[in-house]
Amino acid sequence: MLKKLRLQTLTIPWNLFLISAGSFIFAIGVKAVAMPQEFISGGMSGLCLLIFYWTQWLSPGILYFIINVPIFIIGWLMISRRFFLYSIFGMLTLSWAIDQINFTIPVHDPMLAAIAGGAILGTGAGITLHSLGSSGGNDVIAVLLNQKFNIRMGTFFFGFNLILFGFSLGILDVDRVLYSLVMSFVTAQMLDYVLTFFNQRKIVFIISDASQQIAEAINDRLKRGGTFLYGRGTYTRKQRKIVMTVLNNFELKRLEEIVFDLDPDAFVIIERTFNVLGKGFSHRKIY
Asked: Spelled out in words, what is the top-level CATH class assigned to the domain 201-273?
């Protein structure tokens, strides 16, 4: 019990660091790239700006607070109280960071600015969402949909922004809306890349007459486990033991040397996996 409590305590500074670093990077994308180019920010902040431009009712900050109230209630009830508290910290940190940044990145070409802004925004959002919290707004909904329905966060963000920018076409300059759409697409792609970067693994299937020796060499030299799958060749009708194992990118070359040293005629299939959960790899993320 004490060990579990100690581990939970140690994760608090790490999560606060991820949220702070991600919020600061995201704020750079907003304040130093998107705003000087007059791009529309995506997510709930972009929705508040659009409502303000259209109605001139209240201010974007007050609108953002009003919209976040029901969203944070959803986070409290349907995700967890810990997620709610971390997300409150993330929202306050992001607001503070945006106010503190007073420089611009001198990118003059709008398309390059859209790409650069999207890369920065996606990196910041991805780092924040590596924590057990978020920056509020759409992040809360994205986490909920990912947990309940396995919808990729970047896909949700881009879909939401696509609808938002569609409504913006009747209110704002078309060129700025289209550049903003490009920035949103890059943001979504970068977000998914950052979220999966440290979890990417390779699943390997090895078909060989020396499958037993190969499996033992993987255990001894790579310190990795594996599983035997039993199959039959469609041409020879011969039964074989197929070795299935999961490795990181740095272990692939060593695996190739092991396999083809033992059996030059081996057949190896390598596939990229989105995520691997279990001992020796990633742990299931519980908000």
From this structure: alpha beta
